[in-house]
Design brief:
single chain, 294 residues, alpha+beta, Ribosomal Protein S5, domain 2, two-stranded antiparallel sheet, 8 helices, 6 strands, rod-shaped
Length: 294
């Protein structure tokens, strides 16, 4: 199955008082590159290794960015109220001593005491993150979503590439039909030029036959046509494979293009040259699509 290298997936798993939220986004790369984004000191080296291995098991090409964010579950609080009793007692003693020195009567009520610096505090509560298994479960959900999107996009890529391969096959057949006539046309044109130059040469003249034979050898594109047919067959096999075929298709595209370049250089025929240009145009579009295939 052809898969695209682009896509997005999101997953979340709640455990105890925390929720893992994981988002995976992927773009094109020739090799696999995994980028983990998480709050500082959240992931231990062991956790990071486990997550990277999990992504590597699901993808072979592309830049996959994994964003990890722990979130507090609904209804939880991130702070709690507390009173510094020792400090409150110190304030009471200090004010009592001050009242005695100044001859002032009175006492501190609880509300006034709570407003004094340092007595009433909000203590931050560190919510422990969920465990590695929950994080991996959230990552699995995100990777599933990413995989579905990549498969959907991959089907569109496959259909487009397959249609263009049909066009290339038709062009190969048309080139194959023209190729045998190239030598005959060359011999006819050569005889005509010789006649116009006033040089009468018999059809069985050894020099003429040698020249025509040399041209036929130089212009022979049968090997290139055979290899192009083989590349076409391998391309279609790869499109039907269940494995990741991006690198293979990339290589075949380059080899395909090389064969048509050679045909155009060797054939020395305007009709074939026109068909070669058309084939190379289709191949260039195929190569662009292959850059998106995993």
């Amino acid at each position: 199955m052809v898969k695209s290298m682009t896509g997005f997936g999101r997953g979340s798993v709640t455990e105890a008082s925390a929720t893992w939220v994981v988002e995976c986004s992927a773009v094109n790369r020739k090799q696999l590159e995994v980028v983990l984004q998480a709050p500082r000191d959240l992931l231990t080296p062991d956790w990071e290794l486990a997550l990277r291995q999990q992504v590597h098991a699901r993808a072979s090409r592309g830049r996959i960015q994994v964003s990890i964010q722990p979130q507090q579950s609904e209804g939880e609080t991130s702070a709690r109220a507390c009173v510094d009793s020792e400090l409150a007692e110190q304030w009471v003693r200090q004010f009592a001593e001050l009242g005695t020195r100044l001859g002032i009567e009175g006492s501190l009520d609880a509300a006034t005491l709570a407003r004094l610096p340092g007595v009433a505090l909000l203590e931050k509560v560190e919510t422990p993150p969920a465990g590695l298994e929950s994080l991996q479960a959230a990552l699995t959900i995100a990777l599933d979503g990413l995989g579905e999107m990549r498969e959907t996009e991959g089907e569109h890529l496959r259909a487009d590439i397959a249609a263009r391969l049909d066009t290339v096959e038709d062009l190969i057949q048309r080139i194959s039909a023209l190729a045998p006539a190239v030598t005959t046309q060359y011999r006819t044109a050569l005889m005509k030029r010789l006649e116009q130059a006033g040089l009468g040469v018999a059809l069985d003249d050894e020099r003429l036959l040698r020249e025509v034979a040399l041209f036929a050898d130089r212009a022979d594109i049968s090997e290139e046509l055979t290899r192009a047919g083989s590349h076409l067959h391998q391309f279609r096999q790869a499109l039907d494979s269940d494995e990741a075929v991006g690198r293979r298709l990339d290589f075949l595209s380059q080899e395909f293009f090389r064969e048509f370049n050679t045909m155009g250089a060797k054939a020395n025929d305007a009709g074939i040259a026109h068909l070669v240009v058309a084939a190379k145009t289709e191949l260039e579009k195929i190569r662009e699509q292959v850059q998106n295939v995993e």
